[in-house]
Amino acid sequence: MAEYKDTVGKGELLGHPIGLVVLFFTEMWERFSYYGMRGLLKLYMVNFLFVNMRQQFQGNTEMLIPGMPDDILFWPTLQKLIPGEVGAQASMIYGLYTGLVYLTPVFGGMIADKYLGQRKTVAIGGTLMAIGQFMLMSPNLFFVALLFLIIGNGAFKPNISTQVGNLYQPGDPRRDGAFTYFYMGINLGAFLTNFVCGTLAALYGWKYGFGAAGVGMLLGVTVYLLSQSYLAPDNMMKSKEEKHEDDVQTPEVQETGSGTTLTIVNGLLGIDVLIAIALPIWGFMTSFSLNMIMGFLFTITAAFFINGLRKAKPALTESEWQGIAALVGLCVLNIVFWSVYEQQGNTMQSWADEQTVWPIIFGFQIPSTWFQSFNPGVIFLLAPLLDMFWAWQNRRGKEPSSVTKMAIGSVILGLSFIVMVVGVRMVGDTKGSPFWPLFCTFLLTIGELYLSPVGLSLVTKVAPARVVSMMMGMWFLSSFAGNYLSGYIGTFYENKTLSKEAFFWLLTFLGLGTGGLMFAFNKPLKKILG
């Protein structure tokens, strides 16, 4: 492998390279854009878009969106793909969208690794997302806008994250802290956006909220393009150096993974294929066509990913395959974590909108969309404290391993929804205090901090440099499955398949079960990861 070369050489801030500041603000504005739109998405569908789509299809002459054509908004097709109440349909679209923005990074990482490099891919992705946000200002372009956002995010997301890892030498103890600060940037943008986008939407209309999200994305692209000199060398440049050195190595050094390890990897990746086979069959039996579509999508993605790893040049070694096997195992558990966590923007937002009394301050009624700012606000405050706490543990030789941190996070996530179980019993079918969703969110935020930034850091530490963007894409692929699953789980709440109390108990057990499995596999995973 090529020796790391510190070509940044632009000084430091708070003990980290200046390049981290650039990536911090680039990601902050991108997340401002994403979470501003996400905070409006479900309420926009339930309270405005789907209502008007249905009126148009039923021939209502008093449409709120004049001239809305059926052939663009696909209302009959939507009814066929997602039968049920409007809330359940919005839940599935929410899960589908938030899932697909984590699927496309698999391909975005491969494109960056093999063709464009990380910098060009990030710039293209940010531009596409800005276009998509502005398209949302027109209801007729809703689904087309989502497509632009999904593709743009796929190009942007994996390649901005891997550039954080590129700023540090292998084994640099600052890496985990860097990703924690990077995560703060994500959540600073997510915290600010709902006060801007949510307020504009409430006071002036939905399109102004989406327009503000588009402006935020343009600011992120501008920061990134004007600060290229502070970043580490592009991954394509580093890959060329590695290839030159590896070409002179002996065949023994270039041995490929084989035997038990490769079997494990194929088996773990095969889980995607099994899911892909099961979902279409289940979808056919239940006439639930959307699951059939997603099943085929799983199949294509799994095959594409396996093929990309096997064709890596130089070929992956046995030890590298072991690291990949460990990462894939964690990805499977990560699916369940995000299916529970993403209820925050789905069913928890429904609770915040329908069953919470928000205060009036100086004559201004706080919109329920402000609820979405609580989670990133807590993260922004707690992330540096948690980083200092881990550093304190490290100095005493008691810092948990990355896998242990992730297990702790999953357990805390599960326990957080016990708060909502109590809240349901106290509130019933009326409206209650903001305490219940806010305290639940406070706890699940701590769980998120123990898992999400640690997982990102783990990928950059374990994945071979020549496939690191691909493996980052694989990590986001597990988030895709989790987010899509969150939409389906949310239909149990919206369609009243489960009582609200039973629904929140389900989330509790899913979180606790995931944490338990991570603890159970901690020793073998630690042995592989070193």
Question: What labels would you give this structure?
Answer:
530 residues, mainly alpha, Growth Hormone, Chain: A, two-stranded antiparallel sheet, 4 strands, 75% helix, globular, disordered N terminus
CATH topology: Growth Hormone, Chain: A
Number of structurally distinct domains:
1
Mean pLDDT: 79
Total count of strands: 4
Task: Write the element-wise H/E pattern from the N-terminal end onward.
Answer: EEHHHHHHHHHHHHHEEHHHHHHH
Provide the low-confidence segments as ranges: 1-9, 69-73, 244-261, 271-287
CATH H-tier superfamily: MFS general substrate transporter like domains
Structural class: mainly alpha
